[in-house]
Amino acid sequence: MKIILDAGHGYNTAGKRTVDGKMREWEFNNATAKYAAEYLNDYKDVEIKFVQDTTGKTDVSLTTRTNIANSWKADVYVSIHANASGNGKWDDANGIETFTYTSKSKEAVALANKVQAALIKATGRKNRGVKTADFHVLRETNMTAILIESGFMSNKEEAELLQITEYRKKVAKAIVEGIADQYNLKRKAVQTFTEKTAIPSIVYEAHIQGTGWQGKKKNGETAGTTGKSLRLEAVTVKLENTEAKLEMQGHVQGIGWTTVRTNGEVIGTIGEGLRLEAIKLKVPGLNVQYRVHVEKDGWTSWKKNGKMAGTTGQKKQIEAIQIKLS
Ligand SMILES: [Zn+2]
């Protein structure tokens, strides 16, 4: 799904700052939008676009912002702001509120409710509720749109919070939680496993002419040899700390492509004097890259998603292999 993150205003927008002038509203909005984009990147099938000038130099007009969202055909528009009340003096108004357009589309209200609840839970600030307003970005967007007021720049305590990285991250995370809940977003595999604190890794071992199994290598180390003209005859590859599935094939001298092999299976031959000429490797859900060192040619470029590394029909041996997760 396509999500617009809109950090309100620009750095120099008149008025939009804390009472003591220490922070511009744009600074909070933009930083929080960037954190939200990072958290959203942990989910599958999400595309994100900012509509603000992320350098802050210009305050992109509201019409331009909504035009970008409409022409991109976004599914959701999330506008991030900090609030203010009174007339330029510190005052008591405080808390967080989330807005939908006055016509209150069911989906927008549902999203706003989830985001608002997550914000209050995460920050412990006063719940000012979900409200409606005739704001341009809510009215002129063709998609579900909400606008979040994440605390008051005119409240001394909240003005300080709004400047703290941890608070910005909490707000961003809560917004993303609300979106993920509403649209049933699924986390990418790599994140799921990172959360269990075990980091996925890839372990592989090469069987070398005259040497045999050479010993385990991992995460980009070289398995095999270079500059010795020794053929790599077989390889075995294993993923650790992940349930992602490995699919791998090798092209063997005189035999051609092997069938698809998986975690820890041997690809190639042992004791038959046959060179491995190419490999293909794929791990749905993880970003695995690989390259091989081909006789006379040297290292190939990094490949991924089942693209061939090596050669076929050229009678050239693979001599070494590197595989990495990125
Ligand atoms: Zn604002």
TrEMBL record:
It comes from the Bacteria. InterPro entries: ChW, MurNAc-LAA_cat, N-acetylmuramoyl_amidase_3. PANTHER family: N-ACETYLMURAMOYL-L-ALANINE AMIDASE (PTHR30404), N-ACETYLMURAMOYL-L-ALANINE AMIDASE AMIC (PTHR30404:SF0). Residues 66-180 form the MurNAc-LAA domain. One of its GO terms (cellular component) is outer membrane-bounded periplasmic space. Keywords: Hydrolase. This is N-acetylmuramoyl-L-alanine amidase. The lineage of its organism: Bacteria, Bacillati, Bacillota, Bacilli, Bacillales. SMART domains: Ami_3, ChW. One of its GO terms (biological process) is peptidoglycan catabolic process. GO terms for molecular function: N-acetylmuramoyl-L-alanine amidase activity. It comes from Niallia nealsonii.
